[in-house]
Amino acid sequence: MTLTSLANLYRDLGKYTEAEExxxxxxxxEQFLGPEHAELVRPLxxxxxxxxxQGKLAQAxxxxxxxxxxxxxxxxTEHYFMAFSLVGLANIARDQGQL
Length: 99
Prior knowledge:
Layout: H1 3-12, H2 16-27, H3 30-33, H4 41-53, H5 57-74, H6 81-95
InterPro entries: Kinesin_light, TPR-like_helical_dom_sf, TPR_rpt
Keywords: Coiled coil, Cytoplasm, Cytoskeleton, Microtubule, Motor protein, Repeat, TPR repeat
Subcellular location: Cytoplasm, Cytoskeleton
């Protein structure tokens, strides 16, 4: 099981503190891979979803934007993960009364 999968499990169980710690551990690989590496997409997306669940909308928005930038640069706009972040951004906009 990958760190991100474990963090997703904790998030789904409502163990947000544990989930956030594990997502951040998974993101530690950024120092070796660089800030725009495809391997960072899953933990960034998971952390964005967790941040949304915790009501940290600004953080969630920033994380979704970062995921979109990475995907656009490396995998193109047709990659299915784009939908997750676009829906996440739409939910944030709705919650902020922007839709």
